[in-house]
């Protein structure tokens, strides 16, 4: 069960407190994804982000990669459920920069403003989710919570705007969505036809047995 929870206030740590937390964090890490403290006080580390996207994403083709605008060769598809990506970031990276890095890693051409990063916490047999603001720092949240993902995990979702703002999508994106819907409709139609054909065969077989002399 997801329970929306308000964001918690940011607690600023001294350099010594950060050092102690990083040492404690690294001693608890089981997957070798440790944090490193630099001389300037900035630390680096890894976060894992689960992709929970309901709408298809537009992925750049090899010809259009590196361009800002959508290409006619770009394709849209649904990302598989449970897809998790690992990012190496620094303590200065914001939520907005993490979202942009994720999309870039997947060659996603969609506007980063369409997405939001959530933190998910497990407390007292309930799951709490909270949308993070663009200015928050995910690696700080990871450090404070520790390496255990059941204590804190990150999830990428579309913005919850109540209704989809279709005007925010480009023409190639909308055309790709229509192609996906047509394909899904045809697949469902074929499934229904096979199901009713099987019913018809069973009924005709049963009727044939009843009317035999």
Automatic annotation (TrEMBL):
> Please, which domain of life does this record's source organism belong to?
Eukaryota
Q: Which residues form the SARAH domain?
A: 163-210
- Where is this protein found? Cytoplasm, Cytoskeleton
InterPro entries the UniProt entry points to: RA_dom, RASSF1-6, SARAH_dom, Ubiquitin-like_domsf
Record-given protein name: Ras association domain-containing protein 3
Alphabetically sorted, this entry's keywords are: Cytoplasm, Cytoskeleton, Metal-binding, Microtubule, Phosphoprotein, Zinc, Zinc-finger
Q: Where is the Ras-associating domain?
A: 71-161
The entry lists its GO molecular-function terms as: zinc ion binding
Q: Name one GO biological process term.
A: signal transduction
Protein species of origin: Antrostomus carolinensis
Identify one Gene Ontology CC term for this UniProt entry: microtubule
Which Pfam families does the UniProt entry name for this protein? Nore1-SARAH, RA
């Amino acid at each position: 069960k997801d329970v929306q929870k308000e964001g918690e206030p940011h607690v600023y740590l001294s350099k010594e407190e950060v050092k102690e937390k990083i040492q404690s964090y690294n001693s608890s890490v089981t997957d070798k994804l440790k944090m490193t403290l630099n001389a300037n006080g900035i630390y680096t580390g890894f976060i894992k982000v689960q992709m929970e996207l309901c709408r298809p994403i537009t992925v750049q083709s090899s010809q259009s990669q590196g361009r800002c605008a959508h290409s006619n060769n770009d394709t849209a598809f649904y990302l598989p459920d449970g897809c998790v990506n690992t990012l190496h970031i620094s303590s200065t990276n914001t939520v907005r920069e993490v979202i942009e890095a994720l999309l870039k890693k997947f060659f996603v051409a969609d506007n980063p403003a369409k997405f939001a990063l959530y933190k998910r916490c497990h407390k007292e047999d309930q799951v709490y989710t909270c949308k993070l603001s663009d200015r928050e720092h995910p690696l700080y949240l990871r450090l404070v919570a520790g390496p255990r993902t059941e204590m804190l995990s990150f999830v990428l979702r579309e913005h919850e705007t109540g209704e989809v703002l279709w005007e925010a999508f480009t023409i190639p994106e909308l055309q790709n969505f229509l192609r996906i819907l047509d394909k899904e409709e045809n697949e469902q139609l074929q499934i229904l036809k096979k199901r009713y054909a099987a019913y018809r065969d069973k009924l005709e077989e049963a009727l044939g047995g009843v009317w035999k002399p």
